[in-house]
Specification:
single chain, about 425 residues, alpha+beta, Elongation Factor Tu (Ef-tu), domain 3, OB fold (Dihydrolipoamide Acetyltransferase, E2P), four-stranded antiparallel beta sheet, 4 helices, about 35% strand
Length: about 425
């Protein structure tokens, strides 16, 4: 028969407890070790990433923008007066000279006002000639009176001279001599007054005629203005060029200032570029530019920078310094590159997808003979269209991945295959 042994039972229970505790400790240690292990580096196909090598040397800073060719000389033709469009004589795209009539307008009230102004001018001229004739007759009368008075004066003076000789010889009485002397002196005064009156009247004639002439000049200016307005009903471009737009239709009533047409000179074009506002701060008047028309390139230079920002871009006008390629015309889409400056001796590389001027970004540097890439913090400096200055974090000869690596933001190392 079996004999009960309680000490064995306690021993087996104690062993089970010890084994359980050991198992728990082992599991905890393994879990802690596994938690400290780094995640396996993901694999990236080399053919899907773009790399470049950091180099030391000169760096050309440029900015680039899209734009269009626009004429340097554009004439917008407004309506000078009220009118009704009677005829459209040309279509957009037609070459025109300065005196080519492109539109015919009509305005019956203006035509009547031209006739009225013409009649008023003729009336003012007739009044001038009539007044001049009257004043000339009056002047002749004044001069005739002055001449008669001068004749009487000379006769009295001659008579006095004769009596004076006789008086000195004692032939005539003193009374007769005195009377002739007084008469001569009085007629001398009257003769002087008559001549002064004639001269004064002649001067007044000029003043009266000047007043009437001013009236004629005013009427003539009004007539010429009305005539000019009437002539402007025959709408002309005023410059040689190409008719780009006709903004009105036949039968349309237009008011003064209404835009009728637009004419441009297609032989003188400039490039109007849209530069991102973050890059436009470095653009300056006179900087060199290269305009790509997609059918050839042509050099140019910056001539104007718009002071305002629209839709995140700044408009920059560049003059064309060379001959445009065949097929270049207004509104042609172009791409322009503006040279900002040339840096002599800097560290630089290709511009990464993410990286702005004077910023610090994490980039993957290729290591281990190209089998892996590790993330490094790189401080960027000045940027260009396709390159960027390296201030800290890299050395000459380092290879970088410039492609978008945002899918691996959670990893500091990737394998390349």
């Amino acid at each position: 028969m079996d004999i009960a042994r309680p000490e064995l039972k306690r021993k087996r229970r104690l062993l089970r407890i010890i084994y359980g505790l050991a198992g728990l400790i082992t599991i905890a240690v393994v879990a802690a070790g596994l938690s400290r292990l780094k995640a396996a580096a993901p694999t990236v196909d080399k053919t899907t990433v773009w790399t470049d090598t950091v180099k030391r040397g000169p760096m050309l800073r440029e900015v680039r923008g899209l734009g269009t060719l626009v004429p340097e000389t554009i004439r917008v033709i407004p309506a000078a007066t009220d009118g009704r469009v009677e005829q459209r004589l040309l279509l957009p795209g037609t070459p025109v000279s300065a005196k080519t009539v492109i539109l015919e307008l009509s305005n019956s009230e203006l035509q009547q006002s031209v006739l009225d102004a013409g009649f008023q001018l003729k009336g003012a001229e007739a009044e001038y000639h009539n007044l001049k004739a009257q004043l000339d007759n009056q002047l002749m009368e004044q001069r005739s009176k002055a001449a008669g008075m001068r004749s009487e004066y000379h006769q009295a003076q001659l008579q006095f001279d004769a009596y004076d000789q006789l008086y000195k010889q004692g032939i005539i009485a003193e009374l007769i001599w005195k009377t002739s002397q007084v008469k001569a002196e009085e007629l001398a005064k009257q003769n002087k007054i008559a001549e002064t009156q004639a001269d004064t009247f002649a001067q007044s004639i000029e003043a009266q005629l000047a007043v009437q002439q001013a009236k004629i000049d005013g009427q003539r200016a009004l007539y010429e203005l009305k005539q000019h307005q009437l002539d402007q009903l025959h709408v002309r471009p005023g410059i040689d060029g190409v008719l780009q737009e006709l903004a009105v239709e036949v039968g349309q009533q237009v008011a003064p200032g209404t835009i009728l047409a637009r004419v441009a000179q297609p032989t003188h074009l400039k490039a109007e570029l849209k530069i991102a506002e973050t890059q436009a701060k470095d653009v300056a008047i006179g900087q060199k530019a290269l305009i790509d028309t997609h059918n050839g390139t042509v050099p140019g230079h910056v001539i104007r920078i718009d002071p305002s920002v629209q839709n995140g871009t700044v408009t920059v006008d560049t003059a064309i310094d060379g001959t445009l390629p065949p097929g270049s015309r207004p509104d042609l889409s172009v791409e322009g590159t503006i040279e900002i400056e040339r840096l002599a001796d800097v560290l630089s590389t290709g511009r990464p997808v993410h990286g702005e001027t004077n910023s610090t970004v994490g980039l993957f540097k290729v290591v281990d003979d190209g089998s892996e890439a590790v993330r490094v913090q790189v401080k960027l400096g000045r940027t260009s269209v396709n390159s960027v200055e390296i201030l800290q974090g890299l050395a000459a000869g380092d290879r970088l991945i410039l492609s978008d690596m945002s899918s691996w933001d959670n990893f500091d190392r990737v394998r390349l295959r």
